[in-house]
Amino acid sequence: RLGTERYYTQAEINAYLDDLAARYPSRVSLKVVGKSYEGRILKTITITNGDGRLGKNVILMDGGFHAREWISPASAVYAIGELVENFEENADLLLDYDWVVLPVVNADGYEYSQESSSTRLWRKTRQPVTINGKTCYGTDPNRNFDFHWLGKGASSDYCSITYAGPTAFSEPETVVVRDLIHTYSERGIMYLTLHSYGSYVLYPWGYTSELPETADDLHEVGLAGADAIKAYSGTKYTVGSSTGLLGEAAGASDDYAFQAGFPISFTMELPRGGIYGFDPPASSVDRLVKETWVGIRAMGKKVTEKY
Ligand code: 0X9
Ligand code: ZN
Fold first, then answer.
1. Could you say which of 202, 205, 238, 269 is the most buried, measured as most Cβ atoms within 10 Å of its Cβ?
2. CA distances from 248 to 2, 131, 200, 218, 243 (A)
């Protein structure tokens, strides 16, 4: 198991995935799905129960969209560890479903935020944009998806923290997630993207205050996660639509996955911690990733029963 006593680099996380693939070849497979702007390898881990049945339903999960939200990759990695190394206790989640996880989407930003205290709060990717001789770095990957791109809550200012990018899917990292969403849109049931902070389970829409027709189903599955976490640790999550709870923010991956065919799509905003909210101390990683797993597990379980 990768420890929970500190945060790990993207390279260490990839090495852990390699280690799992070597140790559990019948249940785990890896795929290089692309490269970040700076050339870091992005790889997914597909977790099965090893029964060889093809075409099962899929739960697609990612972490590390926003660089500074370190508890997100940590939680994705912990979930991977549970599904693979604690397989016996989680076999119910893998009977009719495969899980596909990309733990660090914005690998360049994540590494940059680990470089020094002055870059700790970096959010965007690292691809530069130069206009009239002035350069600003990065695009908000969660404003870069081509569904109501540059709508409400997204900025066209290339130096803004919510910059939607020069075009939709201008970032290699969001292209990777787009392609994963389309690869699994036929059999994908739940898309779950891990962010921080605020302790929310958010469902579509995030570009409009309108609710989808299936809002009750989304709410029910989200509540299963929130209730499980409350019972486990006492942490209170709020469940609701993205726009209802946070206001419009268009061009995000959750809306994109939902419109592409995933009937369940959530942004999970993990709890705040530390001085800025994005920086829970290393000493609280263990507690947070464990309670987050309880929530992910409960939502996954609910999905396997409902769909
Ligand atoms: O604004 C975001 O991208 C997410 N919050 S964060 O603080 N992690 O940046 C929320 C996204 C919610 N989903 C949509 N607005 N579609
Ligand atoms: Zn985020």
1. 202
2. 36, 27, 15, 18, 5
The β-bridge partners of 67 are none
Q: How many angstroms separate the CA atoms of 95 and 116, rounded?
A: 43
Q: Which amino acid residue places its CA nearest to atom 12 of ligand 1? A: 242
* Alpha-carbon torsion angle 17, 101, 37, 184, nearest 10: 130
pTM check: above 0.80? yes
Q: Which residues of the chain have pLDDT under 50?
A: none
Torsion of CA 236, 242, 247, 253, to 10 degrees: 130
3-state secondary structure of 201: strand
The rounded distance, in Å, linking the Cα atoms of 165 and 143 is 8
Residue 1 is predicted with a pLDDT of 86
Q: Which of 246, 272, 279 to mutate to test the pocket of ligand 1 (most atoms within 8 A of CB)?
A: 246
Residue-range domains of the chain with CATH: 10-123+172-306 (3.40.630.10)
